[in-house]
Amino acid sequence: MALAKMSVAELEKFLREEFPQAFSDGDITIESADGETCLLRRRYDVRMLRPGGTVSGPTLMAMADFAMYVVLLSAIGPVGLAVTTNLNINFLRKGLPGQDVLAAARLLKLGKRLAVGEVNLLSGSSPDPIAHVTATYSIPNK
User: Fold this and answer.
1) 135, 131, 136, 134: which is closest to 121 by C-alpha?
2) On the chain, which terminus has fewer CB atoms closer than 10 Å, C or N?
3) Using only C-alpha atoms, what is the Rg of the chain?
4) E strand or H helix at 13
5) What is the per-residue pLDDT for 60?
6) Where exactly are the transmembrane stretches of this chain (predicted)?
7) Record: fold of 8-138
8) Per residue in 82-91, pLDDT tens?
């Protein structure tokens, strides 16, 4: 795969301008992105929890989808209309309250029209994933 076409700073600027509903309030930070992988952090907030005190599925799915978008943009550049065509999530264990959620995304295949990747979602500093995601993105014609 190619080297990064967008730096973390360029990604952040693009996302603040083009996708503010997902990246404007500062709760998600891009810790790294290199054109093949990225690491995102969502700071803990009580709004992430579902009844029973675990991180909610919608929180994890949104984080995984956003991580895939970020790693894809880092690989192909500012293509705002790249969209999710498939997302599969396996919930593996409880995400603990009080812990940030980390999303480690990796592109598995980058084609001209489709990209396939995976995301491991982690709770705080635990190395054991709380969810595993595979996703496919459609890349529009230039």
Assistant:
1) 131
2) C
3) 14
4) helix 8-18
5) 97
6) 66-89
7) Thiol Ester Dehydrase; Chain A (3.10.129)
8) 999 999 999 9
